Amino acid sequence: MWRSPVKIYVVQQGDTLYSIARRFNTTIESIMALNGLTNTMLMPGQRLKIPLYTEAVVTVDAANIRKGPGINYPVIAKMTKNARLPVIGVWKDWYKVKLFDASKGWIRKDLVERFIHDGERPIVGNLGFYTLEEGPTLPSSYNSFVNNTPYISETGLFLFQINKENPTEIVKFGDFTDQYVEDIVSIAHSQNIKILPVVHNLLYKNGGSKVSKDVVKELVSKKENRQAFVQNIIKLIETYDFDGVNIDIEDVYLEDSKNLSALYTELGKALRKKGYYLSGSIPARVSDEPFNPFSDPFDYGAIGKAVDEFVVMLYNEHGWPGSGPGPVVSIGWMDRVIRYTMSKMPKEKIVGAVSVFGFDFNLTTGKNTYVTYEMAMKLADKYNKEIIFDETTKTPMFAYVDEKGNQHEVWFENKDSIYAKIQKAWELGIKGIALWRLGMEDPQIWTMLRENVVVKRD
């Protein structure tokens, strides 16, 4: 059962609102508002609810963020309606807020509505992965992104690939223009959303995992190659005004593990010098011991130290070729992987990446077919099947028999299963969740996020 982790502090002799605000990284004003205080006097033994997160939501069509608390300070950013800004300070008629690139600015109080959150709802970040259209069954992420910006704190554009011909270089993945990317970046920044390119070694034409592994081997084999790649990452960030990068390297030879860790370490140092953000998407593992060839090359300790954000890809617990039926990410699997990850790095860096897709498992032939939420619902409707929510795994599923007599089980994700994973992330104290990928999800996820979750900007 969900229990609210509302924090109560009992006032001690000598405490002041200033000292309490500093201790809990909040503001005097937020403590007073949350507790209905009309003055700053405190009494020993007094119980105070502690604000865990305060945000200001823009209520006008356009609002300036200024370098200081006054209209004579220069404008450093412009926000549009519904942009959400973490409040980190107050001065007279101004809020001090944190921006998408970790810089600080000031906004007038009369341009926003303030919300103070005490933990009655989970407070988590939400990284939405963004892809282009891949045929009629895999729609573009565009509409999902632009229609739900208040409930996305960070976006990863899966639009860039390590060049197979020269792995120190980065090429576009898909058919899009520079202007298309610039427009997405502009929308993100105007809503105070951090935006990163995802640079990956996946889905090469005429090549399977061996090609992906060979690309990584060449990239990480020599320091000069790694350094050239680092410079090209910086160039990519600066070309499109990104806030950093997400590295999604997956297929790797075990013997390249140390060199891969060196790439993350060198990239992290170079990006931090320039004020850029390093996020890494890493396959799931649960032990220091060999687990499977896919995740064994990834040294969680070394990579976790190098990155600002460690996105652990919890999919596919089930769904890989030859796997039996079951959820893509069960709640038990999520708990197991995240707890191992927490043993290797500060939990505040960790993001649990969960699927919004599922699989149709043909139990007769052993073939697994990828399904979006919409596809799963159409199958349930076609075969007149009731959706069952499996309480053990916190996952929806149904079974059916097709026209050829084949037995099927369909395991997928909906608003309730994603909410269960959000609760788990909040319970464990990690940074948040990531959704792979926008455009494939249950549309009711966004209603759930609006009503039951506080989506935190970092």
UniProtKB/TrEMBL annotation:
Residues 53-116 form the SH3b domain. Keywords: Glycosidase, Hydrolase. One of its GO terms (biological process) is carbohydrate metabolic process. The keyword Hydrolase applies. Residues 124-458 form the GH18 domain. Belongs to the glycosyl hydrolase 18 family. Residues 7-50 form the LysM domain. This is LysM peptidoglycan-binding domain-containing protein. One of its GO terms (molecular function) is hydrolase activity, hydrolyzing O-glycosyl compounds. PANTHER family: CHITINASE DOMAIN-CONTAINING PROTEIN 1 (PTHR46066:SF2), CHITINASE DOMAIN-CONTAINING PROTEIN 1 FAMILY MEMBER (PTHR46066).
